[in-house]
Design brief:
about 240 residues, mainly alpha, 10 helices
Length: about 240
């Protein structure tokens, strides 16, 4: 289920697995985040491949996001592994609520039909500061980098939702590799649970990517907002 939703919404799946591990399995925030990272690596790799096969991408933007995200993901992960669990969980919930509100607004105010996308490829250097901010979020919360990147880079470069989701994944994948090492050194990964999530997610993520290319953008954003809001409320009640 987590891998499927990760493919649909262009995320590694951690945005959904982290609250589930905390709410249903009693993981503290650091262990939920670290364990989810094990699943995110194969999920993002498969999603990247699937999106590249189906859409045209500006690789300059993707590479800039990924390269910049790596050192800042380490910084965010270092901060997260040295914080108390409860404040980190509440900060994660606040981020989820903000994202849910944004996507709800986006689903209610869709791009007008018939408007052509503008060529903004000359703005590609702006991907560097976006990658840095997304990398810190990815490290701090073990997810969220794509959630931040997708709407921002979509607005700046006038990308469709699907292409923007690919760009989010290009930031998440290298940052996640760095974060696995960071959380592992702090002993914040439950490896058997992580491998189980990874296997299940790998099987389902391709189906989610296929569905993402068929759903209308307005519906895609609305579904993401509703699911994210529900997860945030459940996790806040636990916190």
């Amino acid at each position: 289920m987590v891998g499927f939703f990760g493919g649909v919404f262009g995320l590694g799946g951690g945005f959904f697995s982290i609250p589930l591990l905390g709410f249903f399995f009693g993981f503290d925030q650091q262990h939920a985040q670290g364990t989810s990272l094990v699943m995110i690596i194969p999920n993002t790799a498969i999603s990247l491949w699937q999106y590249m096969r189906r859409s045209k991408m500006d690789l300059r933007v993707a590479i800039a996001l990924g390269v910049t995200a790596m050192p800042f993901a380490y910084l965010g992960g270092h901060l997260a592994t040295h914080m108390a669990s409860a404040p980190l969980r509440r900060a994660f919930v606040i981020m989820m609520i903000a994202v849910a509100i944004y996507y709800a607004w986006q689903s209610l105010v869709p791009k007008p039909a018939g408007v052509k996308l503008k060529d903004r490829s000359h703005l590609w250097p702006l991907a560097f500061p976006i990658g840095a901010t997304g990398g810190i979020l990815s490290g701090l919360f073990a997810t969220g980098g794509a959630v931040f990147t997708v709407p921002l880079i979509g607005a700046i470069f006038d990308y469709t939702q699907v292409v923007a989701q690919f760009m989010g994944l290009s930031l998440v994948f290298p940052g996640t590799v760095v974060n696995v090492a960071t959380y592992a050194l702090s002993h914040d990964i439950v490896w058997n649970a992580g491998f189980a999530l990874a296997i299940g997610g790998t099987i389902a993520v391709g189906w989610g990517v296929k569905l993402a290319h068929f759903l209308p953008e307005r519906l895609l954003r609305g579904l993401f907002s509703a699911l994210t809001g529900a997860m945030a409320i459940a996790l806040w009640l636990r916190a």
